[in-house]
Predict the structure.
Amino acid sequence: MLLELKNIFKWVNSGGQRIFLLKDINLSVEEGEFISIMGPSGSGKSTLLNVIGMLDQFNEGEYFFFDESVHALKEKHRSNLYKEYIGFVFQAYHLLDDLTVYENLEMPLLYKKYKGAERKAMVADMLDRFNIVGKKDLFPAQLSGGQQQLVGVARALIGKPKLILADEPTGNLNSKQGEEIMELFKQLNQEGVTIIQVTHSEKNAEYGSRIINLLDGRKV
Amino acid sequence: MFKQNIVLYLRNIHKHKTTFLINLVGLSSGLACVLLVYLWVSDELAMDKFHEHDEQLYQVRRNVVNGDGTLATFTSNSSLMLPALQQEVPEVEMAVAVYEFGNDAQLETAEKKLSSLGICASEDFFNLFSYPLIKGNAKTILSDVNSVVISMELAQNLFGELSQAVGQTMVIKKNGLGIKDVFTITGIFEIPKNSSENFDFVLPFKTFLKFRNPSYINWYSNSSSMYALLAPNTNISTFNQKMGDFVTKRAKFAYPEPVFFSRYSDNYLRGNYENGKQTGGRITYVILFSIVAVFVLSIACINFMNLSTARATRRLKEVGVKKAIGAKRKSLVVQFLFESVLLSFFSLACAVLLVMLLLPWFNTVASKELAFAIEGKMLFTLFFVALLTGLVAGSYPALYLTKFSAVNVLKGKINNSLGELLARKGLVIFQFSISILLIVAVGVIYMQLDYLQSKNLGYDKDNIIIFEITDGLNDKIDVFLEQAKQLSGVTNATYMQGGMTNFSNSSRGHSWPGQTEESKNITFRHAHVGPEFIETMGIELKEGRTYINEKPNNESKIILNETAVDVMGLENPIGTVINMRGPNREVIGVVKDFNIQSLYNEISPMALLCRTEWISNLVVKIKAGEEKNTIASLEKLYNEFNPGLAFDFSFLDHQYQKLYQSEQRVSTLSKYFAAMAIIISCLGLFGLAAFSAERRRKEIGIRKVLGQTTSQVTFMLSSEFIKLVLIAIMFTLPVAYLLASNWLSQFAYKISLHAGYFLITGVLAIAVALLTVGSQAINAANKNPVHALKDE
């Protein structure tokens, strides 16, 4: 078992009222799964993804990641855990505008304290694999959306994570670019990477092995 | 990671050049200020510290009771104190007496003739003080009564080469004291740059005693300064208690005159004594300028903080992404601090260049010879200051920017919190408060100095030149004056003792008819003056007459000022016979009060006497507009009496200005500091206004679409900042008022502080702020709203 959520609740207080963002979510994910989270706007998809990705806190419930109880971990341990096992892909790519493709890919490795030579090899490997060697010295603004997202995925993968979390990875792309990214995910999944994606598109959801539907913060 | 952070930072600079430039200019001028002041302060603090025995080196001071019961502190003592100290006080390891000549001693070698500044010092002078000796043995150079030790400059001036000077002879003459003899040069000394004392030659103290009228060698006649080397570990306060009655037990004074020892190297910075207590001195300016420099730098740091946090949105994405990728907050804080430290080191480089460029100018303004060498301690200081500046400036932005969670940042859910806005506004208010304070300071100092310089002193200081009575004139003063008065352009001429800017002689213990017990001990200032002195100086005669040329007769006459008549309680002063500086003097005139000191002091009771043997200076009044020709013909006349001697004169009004030299310096320096503070503050305001205009682009677009006019928008944008300046004004002006009246309170004559001055300052600050912000506001208000709304 890769991770397990038990009775997760998350809420915010607004004007004296408690508004639930996540309500009693139970979910277990095995290694090698490809899960799509679907639901209308405001149903809590992204929140759930952020909770899984440990970027966001929850108010109640238990979360186990590789049998570590995340809810009980200190910030430092949690951050180590997530740095080691999780990669993020964003809808808006979130590449750093002032860094080149090469430097963007290198950045996660810096935080994992890889040596210079190792970093070089890993980045080269990633550039090669995604066929973007020629673009390594360009800045994000000089790339098309599809290419940027390709770099985004490459950046998520470079630390060799067990789990990739993708928040509407194709949301800003045209259909052809979107398809390419989804094919890439499928391939990564076949290579053993667990993927959880948030998507609006039925078609993209089909790439996954399991679909979770949310409505008003509740699994349906 | 290090490398990548640098790369990121450099690209950031490239993208946001204005912000970078504002920060760079601000921080480098701030650092330059700090460096200049640091150089100045360390120079001031090092003054007189070069003496090897600095820790043990003390000067003897003496407290004397004034007529009003307060204490005045003097450094002069009886020459008898020297043997007494040497023989009777075990704590004194070495003692030295010094008599100061003034700068009118005449030196004559076979080739040259010049007047120069000398002292007489007892044998251990060069052992006690560490003036480097280039030639000669410190132990023996002053042992012969006809030896003289001269400075390197004087040796070069007189003999060209130093090696030839020792063993040469010269004639030294000093009027008044009656020294006139041949002296052999036994050594050459050097005056280090950080010495507060300056003199060209040293004669043995024995020589002074030899020529001194023996009737003046007693415990009541104070002529010499005393210096002592106290045994190590002497507890100075117990020692001073023990020494208190050192003079009093040897002389019969009406009031005790307690002596005490003060650290010699303290004199320079803490040389002011009030009522017997050390009250400071130049140290005030040292502290003041240090504070101002730190203020200027902190204004620049505030710019950095404000601009960094205001433009946070641009950096927040980076923070969010990095956090999402696995960066810890600590590493981001380090990154931002690193950036600000890097900027501060850039600025340091610029500041060093600036200091090198400005140092000659700064040396003129501060009248110093500061040198800027980047080495050892300086390098360490520079590094430390830059590092500290970087950390201080970067601290707030670093902590602020990195506190947001990745999710919020990436979703763009960052609202400027109230606290953050308040902090930024608070910092702007702080900046402007300092600037306003400095403007007020500059204004008040300027007006007070202007007032002092234009104040009616009771005499006319314009177009009067003063020069010393040199050897050739000595016996022919009347002839010279007669001839001088014949010159066209000369209105009048006379002579006097000392100068108009300070009657240094004072005395008490006089008696007059109707004297009361309290008025017995009133101290009078007095000077000997020549016939027609009152006319020459343009002093107003209240009653009676002035001195006329009737020599022996004049010696039994006296002229008083109004204050003197008042305190003496004389009803009909003219014709009264009093005892003052000699028995049975007839009061022949009363003059209106005139100032003879700097205007820190009230006018004291004063007497004008007329005895030619005491006089030292000639005074010539010249017609306005004819200065140049008249001085030329005076010089010609002077040279007939003194062949080969340079005509060395000074204008009385220049002498007067010299009284306020340190105030002038403070005035000039504070002017530049204030300008600096204002410019840097405005730079920051400019940056913030630009940012605010950008941030409110959409709002402005909507407002304009809804019908708000350009001028309304401009007003709205400007008022955001003007409000801050107004608050700063409200906070600062009362403080400024208090500080200004405190500074003015030390002057006996001062400007009164009108509300108008402060109003003008406020208006000035607002005007400057408006100019800065206005251009940005107008610019933003004139943009086509369509563009602003389209790309949202």
About this structure: The first helix of chain A runs from residue 45 to 52.
